[in-house]
Amino acid sequence: MTRTDWVYPRWIAHRGAGKLAPENTLAAFRLGADYGFRMFECDAKLSADDVPFLLHDATLERTSNGHGTAGDQPWSALSQLDAGGWHSRRFAGEPLATLEALIRFCLANRHALNIEIKPTPGLEQKTGEIVARRAAQLWTDASLPPPLLTSFRPESLLGAMTVQPELPRGLLLDTLWDGCFDHARQLRCQAIVCNHALWDAALVARVHQARMRALSYTVNDEWAAERLIALGTDGIITDRVDRFSPAG
User: Fold this and answer.
1) What is the pLDDT of residue 73?
2) Residue 111 among the catalytic residues
3) Fewer Cβ within 10 Å of end Cβ, the chain: N or C?
4) Is 14 noted as a catalytic residue in this protein?
């Protein structure tokens, strides 16, 4: 996939529906879809028995009634947790979601998906390998764009590239660290996904000249979105599914 054949929507709903629903749960993705979004971002990591599931943090406390490091627990235990009650009574009892469940939801509704590989520390490459392999196995509709795999960890993207080189990849950046572009090229990335404040005209031009796409996270203000669109960036990840029209 090259810059000229990019097939993803501009607007991407962060963790399903931003902060309007418990992040990374199927309830959040359903709500984001209700607002008209056609592409979603999620965070994927491994349970102790190597089931890819959705969770941002390494630990369970912030977004569930569980405790400890999520990756140390088997899916049989993780699947029993309440991942919605922390958010509001409306979502109490909402379970953690597997990556498989989200992919099946996206396929059934013809949505695109950005899977951020969010490994438990120490499992960077293994997580990339298993997430990429499982995503490729499950994404059976060739008429839809393939899942875009992104990560802050080059090791995770290397794992993904090693087992499923045909799946597009993007390097996530919170800062422009030394060698980041070299890593993106070596990993044959199709996108650079930056903290939105990093983008300026020179950086957008550099990314486009390298035949990659310029995506931004997490954009929740109109002035920021307008600036990024004016700069010619290609994708905007937002929590504010209630503020931005995905058709815009």
Assistant:
1) 98
2) no
3) C
4) yes
